[in-house]
Design brief:
alpha/beta; Rossmann fold; six-stranded parallel β-sheet; 25 helices; 38% helix
Length: 598
């Protein structure tokens, strides 16, 4: 395009249709990849995509998978993920992914087709009230009603998605808007102050926090996914603050990687399947500083018994989250990156306090080794799932490659969080708040598209894998070397575990009686299938999987009845952990009320 044409475009003088304007704005926003699936209401946009080569489109096989792929793309890059789906069922199929992104604060823009404006409300073919349906599923949504509003609406959508607490934003595009001419208006001054936090944390609140840090005898940093969302600088600042203070650090499921898992100051994940030392330290600390975490019920256990004797500080970019679940003593509102910098500046050259007594207590809790297990190394022995993940981690690290891990949801997800260690942020991709089975496979697609030279592994269960198994077609089409590592116990493992604990081992509909042959299934989708049925076969399968330069499904047959420990039963206090199958669940505080929370 000539310079004159570009000048005309900024004033709306170039003859563009709405679809072309949309793509110009996406390019302006730095979009490089769109995950989507075509349909009648978005054909003008797909036609415009065909005519350009700046934005790459990844054709998924289901709209839910498009959103999960875009989530992982966003999570692993720090960019806004973009989704393009058609009207009606295309939009409704995306809703699960949108709620998943909302719960985990993932920045997305979802573009949905809509019937022409004059047909809205007439029950037209493939019409749905998309903005009405997705209002509780998104951070914000829009219906574009006029061509002149198109460019600025899309720009606002990106600003809303990435500002403040990130989240998914939907833009509903009637077909007449994308077919007809539309002006490429110049960017207007932002009017979205309500979506952005103004300024840094309150200076007095920082001073109170630092004073508490200087006098605490048993301090703890409790970190969450907000640190990941804030960007790599926030993770670096957290590490510097931990080094300066000598404080121990624990993390939620979503925050793994913000602080290096192998570091001796890291206590591991806390919560329902967290480490003994993390949960006991959270219960026993006298100062709890929550950074970018929201006191999820899977972390707190029984709320009235959570960290009962601590002075609590909560830092969050979303003021509505502070004090929402747990009463706190100090509120630090703002981007956690700015909060961490302010704490570092205020701490300055203060020498690290003597916390030897506290660390000795933590060491005694650590000695329990709640993640411990015994693997029979006889070659014919049954593979324990924890051992499979430990070996996968060790052998993946030996490759020296940058490694991204996605998971499905269930026991394998918790074992992965416990036994696969992360030294850097943005490498751990999992569904936390919504707990969406079927997340991991399309998430691996999104991560591999974003990082084509990286090692991308989906640690999966056989039941979750089948939720979005059609994405093997996407993997085949784009020759993505994704590794799918299935811990196959033939059960919906976490469901079976809860049925054992709560329902007298009545395994109602949790056994999978008609599983596919995953090796043959891999071959049907132009991938390589492998299987390990015993310990003696495991390392060879992992090695061949990691060395193979294409997609692999590794079917790892593991012990069917293995349970995930430690475990805080729902409704119990977070220091009342089940450490193994022989522990009396009643002694750990399991109640009828807790059964309601599963």
């Amino acid at each position: 395009m000539t310079a004159a044409a570009e000048r005309d475009a900024t004033t709306g003088n170039e003859a563009l249709n709405g679809a072309e304007v949309l793509l110009r704005v996406l390019d302006e926003q730095g979009v490089e990849v769109v995950f989507g699936y075509p349909g009648g209401a978005v054909l003008p946009i797909y036609d415009a995509l065909f005519k350009q080569d700046r934005i790459r489109h990844i054709l998924v096989r289901h709209e839910q998978a498009a959103v999960h792929a875009a989530e992982a793309y966003a999570r692993s890059t720090g960019k806004v993920g973009v989704v393009l789906v058609t009207s009606g069922p295309g939009a409704t199929n995306a809703v699960t992914g949108l709620v998943d992104a909302l719960m985990d604060s993932i920045p997305l823009v979802c573009l949905t087709g809509q019937v022409p404006t004059k047909l809205i409300g007439n029950d037209a073919f493939q019409e749905a009230d998309t903005t009405g349906i997705t209002r509780p599923a998104t951070k914000h949504n829009y219906l574009v009603r006029t061509p002149g509003a198109l460019a600025q609406t899309v720009r606002e959508a990106f600003e809303v998605a990435r500002s403040g607490r990130p989240g998914p934003v939907l833009v509903d595009l009637p077909k007449d808007i994308t077919v007809g001419q539309a002006p490429l208006t110049a960017p207007a001054m932002s009017r979205l102050k309500r979506f952005r936090h103004q300024g840094g944390p309150d200076a007095e609140a920082i001073a109170r926090t630092v004073q508490a840090m200087k006098t605490a005898k048993r301090p703890l940093f409790y970190t969450g996914g907000g640190i990941i969302n804030s960007g790599p600088e926030a993770s670096e600042l957290l590490r510097r603050l931990a080094r300066k203070t000598g404080f121990p650090v624990t993390s939620t499921l979503m925050g793994l990687g913000a602080f290096p898992s192998p570091d001796p100051q890291f206590l591991g994940m806390l919560g329902m399947h967290g480490s003994v030392e993390a949960n006991m330290a959270t219960h026993g600390c006298d100062l709890l500083i929550a950074l970018g975490a929201r006191f999820d019920d899977r972390v707190t256990g029984r709320v009235d018994a959570f960290s009962p004797n601590s002075f609590k500080v909560h830092a969050d970019i979303d003021p509505s989250q502070i004090g929402k679940i747990i009463r706190v003593d100090v509120r630090l509102e703002g981007d956690v990156r700015d909060t961490l910098q302010a704490l570092l500046d205020a701490w300055d050259d203060t020498p690290a306090p003597d916390l030897s007594t506290w660390w000795n207590q933590i060491a005694s809790w650590r000695s329990v080794d709640g993640f411990g297990f015994t693997q029979d190394m006889t070659p014919s022995a049954v593979i324990r799932p924890q051992h499979a993940i430990r070996r996968l981690y060790e052998m993946a690290m030996e490759t020296g490659r940058d490694t991204f891990v996605s998971t499905e949801v269930g026991q394998h997800q918790m074992w992965a969080a416990q036994h696969f260690q992360f030294a850097e942020p943005n490498r751990w991709l999992t569904s936390g708040g919504l707990g969406t089975m079927g997340y991991g496979l399309p998430a691996a697609v999104g991560a591999q598209v974003a990082h084509p030279d990286a090692l991308v592994i989906d640690i999966a269960g056989e039941a979750s894998t089948l939720m979005n198994i059609q994405e093997l077609g996407t993997i085949a089409q784009y020759r993505l070397p994704v590794k799918i590592f299935i811990l196959n116990n033939q059960y919906m493992g976490m469901v079976r575990q809860w049925q054992e604990l709560l329902h007298g081992s009545r395994y109602s509909q949790s056994y999978s009686e008609a599983l596919p042959d995953f090796v043959k299934l891999a071959e049907a989708f132009q991938a390589t299938g492998m299987r390990a049925t015993c310990v003696g076969e495991l390392d060879d399968v992992i090695r061949r999987m990691l060395e193979h330069d294409g997609p692999v499904i590794a079917d790892i047959c593991v012990a069917e009845n293995e349970n995930c420990y430690p475990m805080i039963p729902s409704g119990a206090a977070h220091n009342q952990m089940l450490l193994g199958p022989d522990q009396d669940s009643a002694a750990a505080g399991l109640t009828e009320e807790g059964m309601m929370l599963v």
